[in-house]
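Schema walkthrough. Field components (list of strings):
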Amino acid sequence: MKRVTGFGWLRGRSAVIGIPYAWLLVFFLLPFLVVAKISVSEMETTTISDIVTWKDGAIAFSLKFGNYVLLLKDDLYFTTYVSSLKYAAVTTVLCLGIGYPFAYFMARARRTLQPALLMLVMLPFWTSFLLRVYAWKALLTEHGLAADAIERLGLDKVLAAAGLISGPGQLMNTPFSLVLGMTYTYLPFMILPLYSNLAKMDLHLLEAASDLGATAWTAFWTVTVPLSRAGIIAGAMLVFIPCVGEYVIPELLGGPQTQMIGRTLWDEFFSNNDWPMACTVAVAMILLVIVPVAIFSRYQAEATERRNA
Amino acid sequence: MSAPAFLKILHIVKDFDGHRAVDDVSIDIAKGEVFALLGSSGCGKTTLLRMLAGFETPTSGSITLDGRDLAGLPPYERPMNMMFQSYALFPHLSATDNIAFGLKRDGLPRAEIAARVEAMLKLVQLSAYAKRKPHQLSGGQQQRVALARSLAKKPQLLLLDEPLGALDRKLREETQIELANIIHEVGVTCVMVTHDQEEAMTMASRIAVMSAGRFLQVGAPAEIYETPSSRFVADFIGNVNLIDGTVVEDEADHVVVDCGDCQHWIGHGITGTLGMKVTVALRPEKIRLSREPPPHDKDAPEASFNRVHGRIKDLAYFGSFTVYHLQLDGGRILKVSQSNTERQTGGALTWDDKAWAGWAPLSPVLLTQ
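Field assembly_structure (string):
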């Protein structure tokens, strides 16, 4: 009998909450601890030393923080982090600029038209992400379809003058191609939360604003935008966080100027074969991303609290 | 109305995809009047209000306010403010900022806005709640913020869309009087939309009963209640017994209507013709119920009319009054309401009791449509 009651917590609510927590524990926290452990270990050719050893009847810790010191000292890592954050931020701003009007008009479109528009936003997901990025490679390469169009419009000179491409006609492997690829890939992740937020808005509020003397433009900035803040934050997080650690797009569309953490990580693992250093870079990246996530969760929690109040 | 028209609505028509929502409505509303559009849902009252606010464009007709034609003026340029049915308070702004919203759009100096908002909060007795967001306020408080917001710009015309519709019954009764007092205090001309006749009667100085996009009757609350002009209005406002009959006697000072099991002697009414089909409208509270036949003056000509005998088939006790369903000997049911002025200690009429009902010659109203 006692045994049964002892497992009482497993039943009902606890189980429902417990299962995802157990999942996160096993598949997220433990691997993270393994990575963290490797980052402070010595590596001898192919084996990684234990950090806790039993030597002469005493427990010995051997923690090596040299990698973290190197991370702070070596300019390479610092500039990669900064450039990762920079490209992720630029991508987020561009996605917001393109995605907001899109989501706005989608949410205000005829009810019968909305499912079709939503489908169009999700359509790219039907093709492999890798294929789509490769397609951009073909489009942007010299005499590619997009490259030709940009040249004909004379935009390449503008981009070259701004230092976003290496020279007129050379669009590939530049900050321009990288940001273009990331914006293209992550745009749906901005549109979807914005759309679901904007579609819920009570349109009487805009009538009220208009009644009180606000033009459509003023009403947009004083009512619609503040009310869609949760959608903006959700969309920005969904774009920014994966962009920081993005590996495939910088690898395929980026160039030597656009070193990002994902590629540094790959290089440490597979070119330098320096697993502890690679793990150090990974741990630092996770910490870097956790901060905005924490802010986001706090905001969400506040919003939920407000709704329930 | 002898007062000059402040708001002039002339031959307004509104069509939605072939459906006529408002059908040739004209009305003059005087300054300071509280005018209620009363009707069931879908009668066009809200469409008419939205055309005043500028959210809908009339298909034809004109609206002038203080001599100025409002056609083509967008809502944000109209000198009127609306209180929305769901209040439409901005959820991200505090009570203060909600009230200040319209004033800021006018570009008033900061100090003036602050002073005006404070005065408004004081008017609706919410000074203590200035910092609260709408979700931190009760339904009644939200309603008052919405009122304050719509009054803050000192509109020439205040539009109220079901102002008390979102409140529960108890709160509605309290707020009704409070709202009427505030509007009276401010002295603003007001057009309100409601489906609730009590709300219209307590708050409005004039009521327009609407059905199918048209005004059926326009008049003061008592006028509409006591002398409805049609079956629809009589039935829509309050409770009524509608009895169909034929005019059998038509004299200068009275008519007699034969309704089969009851004979009405009506001391006023229409000039009609003998044999004309009419409807007699008789309010339940204007009928007296007793065990004994109603006493009457043997010499009066109406002596043998306006009285029926029946059996109490049903009764509903409401505390302050009781509604009886008196089944006449001929089978017809007559609704009678009696106010319980004396404490009931038994002996009151109850199920299956035989009773007499009687009414005065001036009580019934004769309707021809």
